């Protein structure tokens, strides 16, 4: 109770300070979206997290993007082609696209960006998907003329466009002025419908409408399509406490809130708030550090899996909105079939027997979790289930930035962690599987898994990829490098003054095309 109350006090103080800043804004001129946590970075693709990706996607754009139907569509490139071997891609850029500093985007800007992202000093988090660490390596990026860019690989890269379109791994196209003369990142100067205005760490990020935005024709379409801004200012406010966010929404101090607790849906609806619920592949998980001395023995990890009742867990936290799922492949995926359901069944006695075989004697095992209400709730229930099986799990609650840093360094034994939506299982497998010595954030360091991941990355055939994904799931069920808990819907609540907002399977907010009444 002390912990929960302290969170509420923190959330209220942050909200109050943010609203005092906003008091002079005209009602219809600013859209105020309260986020559960601050962005991790203003440098696209660097030190990124879910909030960073979502906010910055209003500022920067890539060559291609996922559309509403989850096909890959034009964005800054109006068309593209590849050779039959998928080793060379040619992109034809849209003409007249302006950066926020007024310069026209040209092919040389795209080349500069790719070279910057491939430079190890940039620390682009998805560099491995382009430099050969995972799959083929880009060996050359060149400009044939002002509007034509050629990307060449050293081996077939059949899934290059999918990676380009994925928000977690897009090489966002920035103007070189985003970086100072000495190579230090300053702020994102992009081509998106909003320009980056201000970031008060821990309080808010503010974006301003870009009046010279080069919008595509037609309708809003995923992260493609028409992205014309209608509201002059977007303010993404950091409000960690869920109660503070919902109370602020009802009071009219906030226009939108994310990560709505399912228990609040009926209450908010009864108070005339609009609630948008979108099922997504976003995935709540329990990470198990296979390098940790107490968890190296696979029997320990299997015991943990047998100790967790996923059905009971989602019943306790989801109000029927969450879908229990131990697999990387979500229930709505076309790659899903009966073999994906294979997983160590809930069996406390089996868990205790495995613990005894592994020689476990009740030593404490830490369970790291961020101080967000929903995450702590999940961690508390998981802790109770593990304790019932004889596993001495000890909660370690930290702020989100600290947990994210420790995740990236592999500095934990167990942790509750959530992944934003990956729109193809390959993208999640690429995030999870790999050499921990090269990338400590990898969860699954196994030669057979790495070989299967590489095989999947080198084929576009649906049936072949489905077979590979099922092989990976079967292997994961044996080795238990990670325990999937459930898929998360995106639940967003909005003041009735906000119009034309729509969720989509990628689970991220898109505030272009959204309007607000005075």
TrEMBL record:
Report if keyword Signal is assigned. yes
UniProt keyword Signal present: yes
Name where it's found: Periplasm
Please list the coiled coil stretches: none
Chain ranges of the Solute-binding protein family domain: 71-425
What keywords tag this UniProt record? Periplasm, Signal, Transport
Q: Where is the signal peptide?
A: 1-22
Q: Which PROSITE patterns match?
A: SBP_BACTERIAL_5 (PS01040)
Q: Which SUPFAM superfamilies match?
A: Periplasmic binding protein-like II
Q: Cite the PANTHER family for this sequence.
A: OLIGOPEPTIDE-BINDING PROTEIN APPA, PERIPLASMIC BINDING COMPONENT OF ABC TRANSPORTER
Q: What is this protein called?
A: ABC transporter substrate-binding protein
